[in-house]
């Protein structure tokens, strides 16, 4: 029997959140810095509670103009504060709604930079641990994010992507490239099943890359977001793979 978590980045101003929520087990909610505000946070947490979906924080760079997808190089204290402030925002709203935050997943450029930069990963992890050492930490499989979380004693959750392509080293194909996103449902399903049942992915160059699959990310901002979420959920169920939050 296989088990996997399905997560989606939400509260980012897309109109797909309500339609996707029934198909996932974990929601990563924007904290108002790269997207969203208090109202969107409240709405998304309420939706998650209605569907018994685990609630997570999705902190990113304070850069709404570029949706948090432009790299920034911050001093260590500024990076630590960036995470701490956003976790505080989510925690405050959760308390007001009698909800509990279960995990943290960095967003966009922050996520990708930390995945390859050990010092940056460790600062982000420290901020999370200092805020709440019981939180699970979502990071790119086989990256510094996972290693830093494990070093710090946090519960690390290895994340893979059904709708993104991979490079030979296990990194995600940069969004600046035309082949960064998987655009067909068939390919997304094939990749999701491969990652869960074989613990590997095929790179854009045809190389088999081993990885650890504990949670699969489905993006809520793609053109095929809702159909992809529904199709992946149904395909996993059809293959007797249990979907549950970690």
Automatic annotation (TrEMBL):
Residues annotated as signal peptide: none
Its EC number(s): 3.5.2.9
Example GO biological process: carbohydrate metabolic process
Hydrolase in keyword set: yes
Top-rank EC class of the record's enzyme: hydrolase
Sorted UniProt keywords: Hydrolase
A Pfam family assignment: LamB_YcsF
Matches recorded under InterPro entries: Glyco_hydro/deAcase_b/a-brl, LamB/YcsF/PxpA-like
Example of a GO MF term: 5-oxoprolinase (ATP-hydrolyzing) activity
Keyword Hydrolase: yes
NCBIfam families on file: PRK05406.1-3, PRK05406.1-5
PANTHER family: 5-OXOPROLINASE SUBUNIT A (PTHR30292:SF0), UNCHARACTERIZED PROTEIN YBGL-RELATED (PTHR30292)
Name of the protein: 5-oxoprolinase subunit PxpA
UniProt gene name: pxpA
